[in-house]
Each structure stands twice: as C-alpha cells, then as structure tokens.
Design brief:
This protein has 440 residues and is α+β, with helices and mostly antiparallel strands. Helix content is 62%, strand content 15%. The protein folds into three domains: 210 residues, no CATH class; 159 residues, Glucose Permease (Domain IIA), CATH 2.70.70.10; 50 residues. Strands 1, 4, 5, 6, 7, 8, 9, 10, 11 and 12 form a ten-stranded antiparallel β-sheet that branches. The protein has a two-stranded antiparallel sheet with strand order 2-3. β2 and β3 form a beta hairpin. The N terminus is likely disordered.
C-alpha cells in the first residue's frame, strides 16, 4: 500500500504520462509529414506517367524520376524516425510493465501478511475478548478503532491489487499494439526500400537511353538557349519601357503641380520678391526621375512594398508540381561538362494545369516567343513576375489581376512534359524565385 501511494510512484506515473504525451505529439507530426510526402509521391507519379506515355526517353521523364526518388527517400527517412519513436515507446512501456509487476508482487505479499495476521483473530469471540480485555475505556476505544482500521486496510489493499492488475493488463495490451505497429512499419519500410531500388533502376535506364541521344540533346539545349535569350531581350525591353513610361508620367505630374503652384503664387497676395522668387524656383525644378528603376506612385509603392513583405510566402504559380530545374547555373542532367543557365525556375506539373498569378498586379505584357510559347508578364510595382511556356492565355495587357487568378494553361510538349518557366525581377535585376515562393 505504501509503495503505490509514495511520492516516488507518483513521480514515475507523472513522468510516464508526460513522456507518452510528448511521444504521441511527435509521432503525430511525423505521420502528418508522411501523409504529405505520400501525396507528393502521388502527384509525381501522375506527372511521371504522362511523360512515360511516349516511348522515347526525355529530360522531363528523368526529372520526374529524380523528384520521385527524392520524395521516396524522404518517406523512408520519415518511417525510420517513426520507428525510433515507437522503439522508445516500447522500451518505456516494457519498463512500466516491469515496475507494475514488481508493485503488484509487493502488494500481494503485504496482503498475504494481513490475511495471516487476521486469521489469528478470525472469529468474533477472539475479537470480543480482545476488546474487553482492555484495562480502561480509552484503551477499549483504541482497540475498537484498530480493528476497524485493520478491516479498512484489508479492503483498500484488495482494491489496490485489483487496480494494479487492471493497469498491468492495459500496459500489456498497449505493449502488444506498439509491437504490432512496429512490425507493420518495418514491413512498410521494406516495401519502400524495394520501390526505391526500382526507381533507381528506372533512372539508370533513362540516363542510358538519353546518353545515346547526345546529338539531339545538344540541339535541344541550343534551341532552349536561343529561346531564353529571346525571352531575356523581351523582358529587358518591357522593363525599360515601363521605367521610361513611369518616368514620363511622374515628370508630367511634377510639371503640372509646379504650374499649379506658380498660378496660385501669382494669384496670391503680394509678398516680398525674394520669397516669391525662391518659391517659384524651387517648384519649377522638380527632382528628375531615375532611369534605373520604376518611378512609383503612392498606390504602386504600397503594392511593391506588400510584394516585398511576402518574400518567401508567395503563392506557387501552379497548384501542384515540383521544381524540375533550379535557378542559376547548374550541370546538365545528362550531358557531361555542360552547364545550364536558368533565369528562373522550371516547374513540372500535370497536363492541362492552369497557371495563376502569384500576387496582385497589372498584366504588363502578353507575347509569344519561339521555344517559350506564350508569355505573360505581370507588374507588381517595381517587381515583375514572368510566366512562360503557356499553351493558352486568359488575360490581356493592362488588365488588373488578383492573386490566385488563372492567367493561362501550361504547355505540354511532344514528349509529354508539362513545364512552366517562372521568373521574378526587381526592375532590371533578376531574382531567384525559390527565395520568393512559399512551401507547397
């Protein structure tokens, strides 16, 4: 009885409860991550299946395989983490079972001693003789209280043994469930490892096939570089035009304000000549607009600031897919010693996927470029987002668009690859879109 009510036992129970709660919380997080990863695998599998409809291997197929491999490795890593927590839970539960068994044995031993002692005064005659053998009334009352307490202790001890047995049964059931869960996860991990090996084999086969198409790949790369150059020229031209246009508008507004001020000064009561001269001179010479960036109005300044504040949290330009080619300079996926320069990021997605505006803004340009298909360029103050490789466009130049609004449909190539080219600019500076879009 003393053991189960002791502070040590209470601390052990409390510690076990906290440990179990923390374990469940972490395990729940891992399970959520695993569900999200499995969803990514389903998306990538759908994209991969579309690229595999064509008999000839393609870069898009290789990129989809690489992404699926990467996600598959994440699944296996997640399962390994879950297994560690389950193993920890199993060990803790086994320790609790052992302690509960020890406590139960001690309770049973104490109860046996009570029963043995009680057997010596089992009949009513012995209890009555024990009471009336008291030398005083006070001693009589003490002996009566002792008999009552002795009976209560026996009942409490029996109840405590029953409760401990129930606790032990629950712990053993929980231990069995955890071991079954561990066994199931081990089986899942084994299957996922087999899937990983299969994917690696498929990737090696695609790389081998593509290596035999070196001449075609080099021609494809050269055509892409020409298309990128044409797109760069278009973006640079549109940015220069917008900077010049905004500068002209700002200059016209400044001139209009200066003329209005001069007219007010001329109609105002007579003042000292020096003051009038200084005022007119100051208003007649507004600060010249800069030619290296867009001159912002109060409204576009707010939009530009809001866009900048959402760095790292911008919407993805498609609702599903993966980054098939990152920003900047990186090795070609097949050709050796060949580097590829990317002004934005390529996002591979499903056929028929709509492209959408990542932020509020105004459509600055809608154009077509060989190798990049249809282009949409949206202005967000001094920031610009570019959406290339569109099959169709559903917006027009000068149109105001809202975040998440569809602007067109992503183009699917003859080899089954559906891929969007997405870029972010600040005036004439090319930025890395991966630093701007949020996590899917």
């Amino acid at each position: 009885m003393a053991l189960s009510n002791s502070p040590l036992a209470q601390r052990r129970t409390s510690s076990s409860s906290r440990s179990s709660t923390n374990g469940k919380k972490t395990k729940a997080q891992l399970e959520r991550e695993r569900r999200a990863t499995l969803r990514r695998i389903r998306e990538t599998s759908r994209i991969l299946a579309q690229t595999q409809q064509q008999k000839q291997a393609s870069i898009g197929q290789l990129n989809a395989l690489k992404e699926k491999l990467n996600v598959q490795q994440g699944v296996i890593k997640n399962i390994s983490s879950e297994l560690k927590y389950i193993e920890s839970d199993v060990q803790q539960t086994e320790t609790q079972v052992q302690r509960t068994r020890q406590s139960l044995e001690q309770l049973k031993a104490e109860y046996a001693r009570l029963i043995y002692a009680s057997s010596k005064t089992a009949n009513s005659y012995n209890r009555i003789m024990f009471l009336f053998a008291a030398e005083s009334f006070n001693q009589f009352m003490l002996r009566l209280r002792y008999i009552r307490q002795y009976s209560e202790v026996r009942r409490a001890q029996a109840a405590q043994i029953s409760n401990t047995q129930q606790l032990l049964s629950q712990q053993l059931t929980g231990l069995t469930e955890k071991k079954q869960e561990k066994s199931s996860l081990l089986s899942t991990q084994l299957n996922e490892n087999r899937n990983l090996i299969t994917l690696k084999t498929q990737q090696d086969q695609v790389v081998t096939k593509l290596s035999r198409q070196e001449e075609g790949l080099r021609q494809e790369l050269a055509e892409r570089q020409q298309a990128v150059s044409r797109l760069d020229n278009l973006i640079a031209e549109r940015v220069r035009e917008e900077i010049a246009r905004a500068a002209r508008v700002a200059a016209a507004r400044a001139a209009a304000r200066a003329a209005a001020n001069r007219e007010r000064a001329a109609n105002a009561p007579s003042r000292s000549p020096g003051a009038t001269s200084r005022s007119s001179s100051s208003e007649a010479e507004p600060e010249p607009a800069r030619t290296d960036r867009v001159t912002l109005t109060p409204e576009t300044a707010v939009l530009s600031s809001s866009f900048a504040e959402n760095r790292g949290r911008l919407l993805w330009p498609v609702s599903r897919g993966f980054i098939s080619q990152p920003f900047g300079r990186h090795p070609h996926p097949v050709l050796k010693n060949v580097m590829v320069e990317n002004r934005g990021i390529d996002i591979q997605t499903s056929a028929g996927e709509p492209a959408r505006a990542v932020f509020d803004g105004k459509v600055l340009t809608v154009a077509s470029i060989a190798g990049m298909n249809n282009i949409v360029m949206i202005q967000h103050g001094e920031y610009f987002t570019v959406y290339a490789k569109l099959r169709s466009v559903s917006v027009s130049e000068g149109q105001q668009v809202k975040m998440r609004q569809p602007i067109g449909t992503v183009y699917t190539s003859s080899d089954g690859t559906t891929e969007l080219q997405f870029q972010v600019w600040r005036n004439s500076a090319n930025l890395n879109p991966q630093n701007w879009i949020g996590h899917k």
